[in-house]
Amino acid sequence: MNVIEIADAADGRLADYLRLRDVNLRRSLEAEHGLFLAEGEKVVRRALHAGYRPRSLLLTERRRGVLPGIAADLPADLAAGPEAVPVYVVPESVAEGVVGFHLHRGVLGSFHRMPLPGLGTVLAGARTAVVLEDIVDHTNVGAIFRSAAGLGVDAVVLAPRCADPLYRRAVRVSMGAVFTLPYTRLTDWYGGLSELRERGFRLLALTPAPGSVLLPDALAGAAPDDRHALLLGTEGEGLSSRWLDQADVRVRIPMAERDVDSLNVTAAAAVACYELVRSH
Amino acid sequence: MNVIEIADAADGRLADYLRLRDVNLRRSLEAEHGLFLAEGEKVVRRALHAGYRPRSLLLTERRRGVLPGIAADLPADLAAGPEAVPVYVVPESVAEGVVGFHLHRGVLGSFHRMPLPGLGTVLAGARTAVVLEDIVDHTNVGAIFRSAAGLGVDAVVLAPRCADPLYRRAVRVSMGAVFTLPYTRLTDWYGGLSELRERGFRLLALTPAPGSVLLPDALAGAAPDDRHALLLGTEGEGLSSRWLDQADVRVRIPMAERDVDSLNVTAAAAVACYELVRSH
């Protein structure tokens, strides 16, 4: 392993890890270099398992013990030799100086992004998909990926304005599900749903508004080979009227007659994914 | 309405609203005075609807317009006369000086707590209940209340160490479901579950560990009058071995064969509540 001790938070080799809570800086830095960060031993190893290639790793001295496990997950050319990935080991105070807070987990990886696959690739063989319109909160995106992957949904499709699943917080909340669940992003918000319909997907728009059908009823009698895409809208406003109009059917989760208007978007997504997979 | 303009953040009448992000201060202050805070017009009005009596309300000048709606929800003796509840109207800068951050929603209410009902009261007529062991995160507690109420679970029971549902963040995330869904707290962690069993509840321990039964299978053939309590454990460790041993059956949510160990606790709670209510 190419282990490098660094004692100075201003060392330029640590630039990938700078000020992790500065959202604007991170967005431009990560876009410019085509990188994303994974946090914690488990999530870093899941990124490696999924085939993402690291640019470097950062460990606090206390967490040196994770090295053998990570080394075992590295492809041979990155574990040793001229292309070996640099592993920066730093005191806790240096880590804190770089990232801007106490680095509790003590393990970070900076990874190269891969080009997003095309819609055809992501949906090949998929019978169930979740389509996120403008979910802007990274925690919600990560939580929905975790639920969709865990419950067995086959693919995720993002609208152009949906938050980035490879943003650090989304990655962490997803527990690495963003690495294993195939996803891509539509480039065309207005017309993009027609590409799903052309591929045989029936579009179910989840909305608590009146005039919708109970989700289990909408799925009753589905054949195993049917293709269903569940459309989920933003945290506050729900789906746009354009997407509601484009859907084949509006569906809702059966709710109690109480003074509660709706579930939050991650709870609704979990229940809907469960029902979707169950009916296939 | 007893509207009082205050221009000084140090005014003692605003003491209920002091430093909302100082968890230790809030815990002792709220326990000492038996109060809790509701945040935002909708949640404040839901607290009033549910019969909680306000100690005072705090509005920023910009949100003065909510007053008629709130006045309509106040009991007559609190809307006018010698017992009229004080409504403090303050500039935004004063609100920020008191609570410690920009008060985006601009509406706060300080309410008297009510004594928690006994277990018998909470469970009277209930066929489904959720029992939270040591969920320590207020966001998770609030989200579980919202899902349980929305999906139609009848009651919630808390272990002694579970986080407070009336803590500000739990209240907000629950969207006021903590006011409408009956709940109480066990005083005895070790033996408390036997009180549920004595009342005819079958105890289902939710756990991703091997050796559990699929939740839908565990509920198959349930009669409408059967009573089921779903036990949920902490975010990281899950249920204690004591509670696992006390349960009638260990259940799990059907999961895909992927590199995802489990759902997060709020997603798992939502799916499990959905399945629980559906089978009754």
Automatic annotation (TrEMBL), chains A, B:
Residues in domain RNA 2-O ribose methyltransferase substrate binding?
Answer: 37-117
What's the protein called, per UniProt?
TrmH family RNA methyltransferase
What Pfam families does the record point to?
SpoU_methylase
- Known InterPro entries for this protein? Alpha/beta_knot_MTases, Ribosomal_eL30-like_sf, rRNA_Methyltransferase, SpoU_MeTrfase, SpoU_subst-bd, tRNA_m1G_MTases_N
Arranged from A to Z, the UniProt key words for this protein are:
Methyltransferase, Transferase
GO BP terms in the entry: methylation
**Family membership:** Belongs to the class IV-like SAM-binding methyltransferase superfamily. RNA methyltransferase TrmH family.
SMART domains from the entry? SpoU_sub_bind
Record GO terms (molecular function):
methyltransferase activity
